[in-house]
Specification:
By secondary structure, this protein is of the alpha/beta class. The protein is built from 10 helices and 6 strands; from the N terminus they run ααααααββαβαβαββα. Strand 3, helix 8 and strand 4 form a beta-alpha-beta unit. About 30% of the residues are buried. The N terminus is likely disordered.
Amino acid sequence: MDLTETNNVKSPIFYLKRTIGILLIVAMAAVFFYSGATKLYTIEAFEWTFVDIGISNYALASVLARLLIGLEFTIGAFLLFHIGLKRVTYPITIALLLVFTIYLIILIATNGNSGDCGCFGEELPMTPLQAIIKNIIMLAVTFILMAIHKVKIRNWQLYVGGFLLMASLVIPFVIYPMSVGSIPPRIDRAIDLNPLYENDTTPETELRTGKHIISFMSLTCPHCRKAAHIFHILKKRYPELPIQFVLMGHESLEQEFFDETEATNIPYILLKDKEAFKEMAGKSVPAIYWINNSVIEYQGNYLQLDPAVINDWLKQ
């Protein structure tokens, strides 16, 4: 690595700049690697972010999610290996951070500073405002690097850069191949939904006949809250889908649950009979059942909610 200065005298200031520059650029690369890896670990949940912002085609959302993760890996690799810093890597880093920041500002303006922005998948929850502060710090670090950490372009960087670009973009597709169109396991088990109609409040829709997706969830379960948020996105994009929540927990927790999940567009009942809830939901929640005339045809998780597959099932 050939670091340059306006003169050839390597003064203490030169070595100080070089040390600071190396530490900062390694830290920046680590953040991008960590950000991409944590999103990749929960890729299905990240795909729904694109559905939420208006990508109606779930297959396209899956591709874009993987490409964005690949771009984060690319930036991390380019920073670490000092590939085209001045002309390529620094400008792309700034552009990406600005796009993320604008998106977060819009998110706060429309939904408030609530929930997890998903910047680091499910590993490190951050509110949109916290994420904006993080992006501002990273932007400042990038501008500092542009001023103090300059590297001459070498011919080998073109070849290494091309390899790193291809590898980074392909990795998300290889590690987590796209599973668009997959359907949950079929179980064909009868379920007694009568307790729902013996409650203080009953469903607005008759769930014992016809096809419905019913999600049994606890108000205190973090996975249930993630499921509820994805259902919110799904219902917002496809309001005709027959989705119903059956919730268990103290009614004082309802407001917090819906504030976090934004799932006020989904019909629900709060079932107070815990034994009846357990009998219907089974051993764990969220229990998401695809029910046809009181028979559970499929049981899936909240990451198996491909709109195309659901619509095909409804039309059968």
